[in-house]
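Task 17 of the worksheet. Students: predict the tertiary structure of the chain below and write it out as structure tokens. Keep your answer in the requested format; marks are given for formatting as well as content.
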Amino acid sequence: MICSIIPPYILRRLAAQHEPRLRVIARAAKESLLHIKNLQAVRALPVPVPVPTARQAKPSPPKRTIYDAGSTEALPGKLVRREKGPATGDAAADEAYDGLGETHALYAEAFSRNSIDGAGLKLDATVHYGQLYDNAFWNGSQMVFGDGDGEIFQRFTKSLSVIGHELAHGVTQYTAALAYRNQAGALNESMSDVFGALVEQYAKKQSAAEASWLIGEGLFTDAVQGTALRSMKAPGTAYDDDVLGKDPQPDSMDKYVRTTADNGGVHINSGIPNRAFSLVALELGGNAWEAPGQIWYNTLTSGSLPATCTFGRFAKATAASAEELFGSGSNEHDAVNKAWETVKVKL
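Model answer:
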């Protein structure tokens, strides 16, 4: 499964620009759209998913390897850094190395998970992929980062939440295997936003109240009127720009976007469960990787989610996890129920 961070609706908007000053941006967006479409066609067969297990091996240290594609699309590229190797001096390579480590640390220390697959999977990443490549993606086995076009997007290793987001697609791949379409696909994207945000918050030791709840903060250049790709706390408010348009994410089910584009709106409608998680975290206070994160992680790895899971089914599963972990009528259980009620998803 190929999962990329930039929603197709953003790339299509950029690709449709005709002003001479935006020619480079439009071409870069068109190439990124075509590239992801071609990759998804090649990787159309499902990836085998191990059956989730209640017990995992004790987390081992990370095993990171960073490659440089040298502005080509050949993977993995030239080896530039191994685990415990010295910094390269190249910002993208060193940010990728650090980001993989921060992601590994969250799963190991907060959830006792042994890397992405639960069995010590090596963490490989390639930087400087393609020319003016406006995306980052998980290809089912490794991370890949473009450098951006320099006009709208900066290099994709600049945002720790992006690195955490894409690697979380790997966790979903090895646990719930949520189909990448319609509400299940939006949940797939939302799980990546949740754990991408948690990676950043854990690394910065931020409480839920201190966190920005932004996904992709720092990706935009100063030319863009916006703070990030998405806001979990306030979906629909991340950007409002003459070129990009306005952030289209809904924040509740009464604004749910019914569309056939983007696999049934997986990037747009993820704002609804995103907001539910942030509401739980803000209601409970403290650190979001603790009770809220444990509830969502337990739900994801329980083996109870069907591939075609709906928002309603997922909401019930999180409520069941909250009850299992903290008890019926607990603050945690009540916060989960209240959050889904606020975003108008029926339990």
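Marker's comment: The beta strands are 3-4, 64-68, 78-82, 123-129, 136-138, 143-146, 214-215, 230-231, 240-241, 245-246. Confidence is low (pLDDT under 50) at residues 44-54.
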